[in-house]
Amino acid sequence: xxxxxxxxxxxxxxxxxxxxxxxxxxxxxxxxxxxxxxxxxxxxxxxxxxxxxxxxxxxxxxxxxxxxxxxxxxxxxxxxxxxxxxxxxxxxxxxxxxxxxxxxxxxxxxxxxxxxxxxxxxxxxxxxxxxxxxxxxxxxxxxxxxxxxxxxxxxxxxxxxxxxxxxxxxxxxxxxxxxxxxxxxxxxxxxxxxxxxxxxx
Length: 201
Fold this sequence. Notes:
By secondary structure, this protein is α+β, with helices and mostly antiparallel strands. The chain has helices spanning 11-24, 86-89, 93-109, 183-200; strands at 2-8, 32-37, 41-44, 61-63, 70-73, 77-83, 116-118, 121-126, 129-139, 142-150. The chain has a 7-stranded mixed β-sheet. The mean pLDDT is 95.
């Protein structure tokens, strides 16, 4: 697995780059995990309802091709994009979602944070508040999009939407839970756990 730290990059060019990577990859193309953060942006999944965007203000809203409803990306949020040939890895969609969620749960456990999943509501939660969101797309048997983990960010923009389509859903982040605030080290550690979980399946 090739792990790449891309830094802070605009959303739409990164999304298009994931699509190109997926469309152009061959049977021996190595899988990659992209780690990054985005400038402020709201993204709407394929079947998302615009009514969940309450008051976006100056923050752009982009309709994209992942599953799920609306979410927010911004500085201080670690975004993890696993670009994986699922057929070659012998993984199903549910396997990948489970691995993404499990990687966060295992990672934060090291800081004494007890995180859980919720049936029917993908993502990772701590005391009912959402810590990480998951939304993926499968094309040609390969995945893109992925996971957004709130590390040390301004959570206010989440109040301008119904996060993931749930009115009143509260968000949380690692820095407020006693976890690390550094994106790069968090990304490296999380990607290593995710790689191990995928290889173990």
